Amino acid sequence: MTDIQRLSTLDADFQPRLAALLAWDSVSDDLVQQTVAEIIRAIRARGDAALLDYTARFDRWTPATATELELPRARLAQAWQTIPTDQREALELAVARIRAYAEHQKLESWSYREPDGTLLGQQVTPLDRAGLYVPGGKAAYPSSVLMNAIPAKVAGVGELIMVVPTPDGELNELVLAAAHIAGVDRAFAIGGAQAVAALAYGTETIPGVDKIVGPGNIYVATAKRAVYGQVGIDMIAGPSEILVVCDGATDPDWIAMDLFSQAEHDEDAQSILLSWDGGFLERVAASIERLLPTMERRTIIAAALGARGALIQVRDLDDAITVANVIAPEHLELSVADPEAIVGRIRHAGAIFMGRYTAEALGDYCAGPNHVLPTSRTARFSSPLGVYDFQKRSSLIMASRAGAAELSRTASVLARGEGLTAHARSADYRGEAS
Amino acid sequence: MTDIQRLSTLDADFQPRLAALLAWDSVSDDLVQQTVAEIIRAIRARGDAALLDYTARFDRWTPATATELELPRARLAQAWQTIPTDQREALELAVARIRAYAEHQKLESWSYREPDGTLLGQQVTPLDRAGLYVPGGKAAYPSSVLMNAIPAKVAGVGELIMVVPTPDGELNELVLAAAHIAGVDRAFAIGGAQAVAALAYGTETIPGVDKIVGPGNIYVATAKRAVYGQVGIDMIAGPSEILVVCDGATDPDWIAMDLFSQAEHDEDAQSILLSWDGGFLERVAASIERLLPTMERRTIIAAALGARGALIQVRDLDDAITVANVIAPEHLELSVADPEAIVGRIRHAGAIFMGRYTAEALGDYCAGPNHVLPTSRTARFSSPLGVYDFQKRSSLIMASRAGAAELSRTASVLARGEGLTAHARSADYRGEAS
Question: What's in the GO CC field (chains A, B) (predicted)?
Fold first, then answer.
C-alpha cells in the first residue's frame, strides 16, 4: 500500500498543507560548506598537486601525473564506436532534435540609429570557454551530457571542457559516447568540489572556464555556489518534480507511470497529480498500487511518493491552473483534451508537456527542448537552460556630435542632482564641443 | 602628485601586475555573514515585528505600526511635483530614452510545428512581482531607480515594489520623484538586510517578491546572495570600473575627466587608460594633475586612482584589444577614430562607448542602455540588466500521435540505457497507442 498524500483545495488547511508539501531547503550544512571551502582553497593554492590528492582520496584512483587526468578525444570516439547500434542511433536522433530546437534560441546582435545619427544596440557574443560537470557513478546520464553540451556548441562557445569523476577508475561508455557526439572539446576524469574549483580557477592542467554548468551532488552544488562570481553557473538544482493536470480522460496507467518516472530519480523527487475528477484520482491510485510492484526501482518510487507525492482534488480547471501557478513546477503535464486553450494561462513552469501523448519522458530525452529546468518553484523567475545561457550581451552606444550635445545637457543636470560633478563635467566637455 | 600606476605590455612582469591590479575579492567576512543570517532568520520568524525592531536600530526611526513603513503613491507624486523643473525635465527625457531602448530587448514567445504536427517552442512570461532595492543616504541615486524600474515595467512585471531606507527619517525627493515617473507600484521605507529578507520571504506588510534587483552595501549584497534560490537576484556588483582605449587624438582633458567620473564613485572604483601613444599617456597624466585640484570629490578620486587606477602603454591597437578582452571591463570607452571597425573584436564588456563624443556619463544617465552592468570581469559571462531579466521562459512540447510514436522509441532506448525504466515505460505507453 503506497501512502501517497490526498489533498483537496476545499480543505480548510489546504494552503499550509500545500506549503509543507512543497517546502525544500537547499542550504548545505556547515560541515559541507567547510569541506568545500577547504577544497577550493587547496586547489587555488596548490593546483594540480591538490587535484591529484583529492582524486586519490575521493575516487580511489592515482594517476602518475596530472596529464593522465585527461580523457583523450580518441577515447571518446572509441566509446562512440563501441556502444550498441540502437543506442548510437538513439543518441544521433536526440542530438539532431536538441540541436534543431536550440538553433531557435540563439540571440542575435541588434542596433538602431536615431535621426541625429546616434547608434544604440547590443552586441551578442558567446562565452570563450565553458565547463560541463557530469556526475559519475549511478547518476551518470548521457542525456545530461547532450542537454548541457549542445546549447553551448550552438552558442559558439570557443572551448567546452567536460569533467566526469571515475570512482575506482570506472568509466561510463555511454557518457563518453555522448560527449563525443555532442562536440565536447576536452574531457578530464575529475569530479567533486575539486573539479568545480579547478574549472573556476584553473590549474596547470585544467583550463579555467567562464561558466560551469551541469548537475552534481551536494558537494558539487555547494562548490558551484561558492565560485559563483568568479565564474558563472547555471543554477542550483533541487530535487526533480512533475505536476500532472488531468481532466480524467487519460488512461490512469499512463498517468501513474508518469508520476513514477519522476519518483524513480531519487527519494526526494516530487510527483503531484491535480484533477477535478475525484473518481479519476481513485483510478490513478489503483494503477499506482497495481503497477508499483512491477517497477525495477519500486523502493525509490515508493519512498518518493510517500514522502513528497500527492493526489490533489481541485474544484475545476480554473482551480487547477491557480494551484499549478502556485506550485510553479519544473515539469508540467497538461493531460487534457485541448491544452492549447489553456497553456497561455500558465504563468510559471520550466517545461509544459501538452496533451495526452506528450509524456515528460519524451522531453527528457529527445523531443528537443532542454531537460535542465528550474526546480523548487524557481520557475517563478528562471528559465530552462538554453543557448542564451552561453551567450552574453554588451550594450553599444555611439553618440553623434549632435546627439552628444543633446544628451550631455540631461546627463549634466542629473549628475549634479546626484552630486557627481566629474560625471557632469565629462558630459559638459562633449556638449561644449558640439 | 597623483600616484597612478604606469604599466606597459612590454614589461616582463606585465601579466602579474595586471592580475594584481584587477584582483577583487567580493567575499564577505564571517561577521557580516553571521549578522545577515541572523537578520534573515528573525524576519522569517517574526515578520513585521522584527522589521520594526531593525528599522529602529539601524535607521533610528520608530514608526508606530508597520503600515507606516509604506510610502503612499501620493507621497511619490508629491515629490515629482516639487523637484526643480530642470530635474523633472531631465528625468522625463531619461525615462523616454531608457524605455525606448528597453522595448528593443523584450523577448517574445515562439513556436514551430514539425511535419507530423508536433509543436515545439518557448512561452515567455513576465515575473509576477519584483523588488527594487534603493540605497539610502549619500548613495541614493535617482538614475538607479530609473535603470532598475523601467526594464521591469517594460517586461510587464505585475507589481514592482521599491524599498529605500530612511536613515533618521530622511527621504531623498529625487529618488521618490524617479520612483513616481518610473512606475513603481508600492514603496516602503525600509533598508539593509532586513529589507532584502522581507522582500524574499514576505511579512504581514511587505509582499514577497520573485526577484530582487538593485545595488546596496555589503550587508545588502550578502543578504541578496543568501536569499538567492528563494528568489532571483540581479547580480552581486563589485566596485565600478572604466577602461578607456584611446588612439591619442582625443583631448586629454576629456579622457582625464572620464577617468575621474569613475573614480569619484568610491575609493575602490577602477579607472584604466590604454594607449599605444606614450606621449598621450603623459598628456593625460598632466591633465590629471592640473584638473584634480578643481574637483569637488578630489579626495575620493585621488584615493581611487592611487589604489586601483593605471595608465597602460600597449604596443598597438591589436595589443589594446587583447588587453581589453582580458580586463573584460564594466564600461569600455573606445575613444578612437573609427570605433565601428573594431567593436566586433571586443568579446567581453558590459557596455561599449564608441567614439570621442560618447562619454560614459551619457550612458550612465540617459543614452538609453542600462547602467547596471557586470563588474569585476563578470562580463565574460554576464550581461547588462535588461527587460530579459524580468521575463522567463517555459518550454512547450506537444507531441502529435505520430510524433509520440517516433519519439517514444528513442526515449525508451536512452532511458533503458540509463536504467530508468519508469521513464521507458511511460514513453512506451504513448508509442504503443499510436
Answer: cytosol
